[in-house]
Amino acid sequence: MRALLLLLPCLLTAGQPSITTLMYLVNRADAIEDFRTHAEKTSIIAPQTFSMDAQGFIMGEVPAEVMRIAAEKNVAVMPLVVNRGFQQPLMHTVLDTPASRARAIRYLLYYALRDGYIGFQFDYENIHYTYRDKFTVFFKEAARTFHRHKLQLSAAIVGRYNEARNSNSPGGWDNWSGVYDYQELGKYADFLSVMAYAEHGATADPGPVAGLPWVRTIAEYSAHTIPARKVSLGVPFYAMRWDAADPADPAARGRKWRGRSARYRDAAAAMATTPSVWDEKENSPHLTFDTNGRQTQVWYEDARSLETKMQLAHSMGFQGISAWTLGQEDPAFWSSLDAWRIRHPGTAQARGTFDQRSERAARAR
What we know:
Blueprint: H1 2-13, E1 18-25, H2 29-38, E2 44-52, E3 58-60, H3 64-73, E4 76-77, E5 80-83, H4 88-96, H5 98-115, E6 119-122, H6 132-148, E7 152-158, H7 173-177, H8 182-188, E8 191-195, H9 212-225, E9 231-236, E10 239-244, E11 257-262, H10 264-271, E12 277-279, E13 284-291, E14 294-299, H11 303-315, E15 320-324, H12 332-336, E16 341-342, H13 354-364
Parallel strand pairs: 1-2, 1-15, 1-16, 2-4, 2-5, 5-6, 6-7, 7-8, 8-9, 9-15
Antiparallel strand pairs: 2-3, 10-11, 10-14, 12-13, 13-14
Helix pairs in contact: 4-5, 5-6, 5-13, 9-11
């Protein structure tokens, strides 16, 4: 009987599909509280807390409370590093300068070894497509260094569905999606988080943040260019709200709509007086109501739409999802994860005092 009781948890999860859940986090109290509440269902926590300057110097840290929760709940920590302010000239300067690239890699390695991260994720964005080869070289250099120290390297890459410059990728090809060489990055990355959002952003007309047909097309292109086991499908927790613009308002700049990001709770508040509509084709819910005499539309993700995206990732052999960002989601999403077995890659060890860890990490560089 005792042996059966010990085996019971394995039997209960044997028939469940497995998934790796990477959750993005920004340094806000509500996001950290969300992580604390749902850490057991988080495989990797990815705080967006590091940035790089034009000389390759890296600054930042993961909040101490996030590290404490991660250690207690066996959640791996993989911070993001961004080009500060997503500045394009800054990023181009680093990519043009071997010494700056090397400096950035040394700093990232130092932080990872000192503080016990499993690695870093490159979240470098707004890079001109003509820098594709140089970005690939930078990533390759970092991956080789990281792997020598048994660390992981990942990248968040803008979703697209072909190699055409006029394709409908978020932000456009030239300055956003075109720089990422899916095939080459896939050779060296431990995994790639393919950002399958925002289909409709703040400057677009109202529509789904990540409609299922659009996401499926991105997923299929990713699967054909990157080993499926290395793909984490980026999904949005956030919503988008569009208010009909006043044609007489100069700030509208001729646009019919003015968009801005929102949270699920904003949609939930509107649902108290406005019925939500489920779009079968897009696999996405939305709301339409009046605000001060002008129409408002809110498109959002809920547990149902997110579950379909997880099923898509699973059916394509992807490792899981990367969700942007904690604190914005439908609370029911977490209950939907009860049907999944959450993978836990394990945490890195960072023993000793800060000075001891710093000294060891400095020697390793």
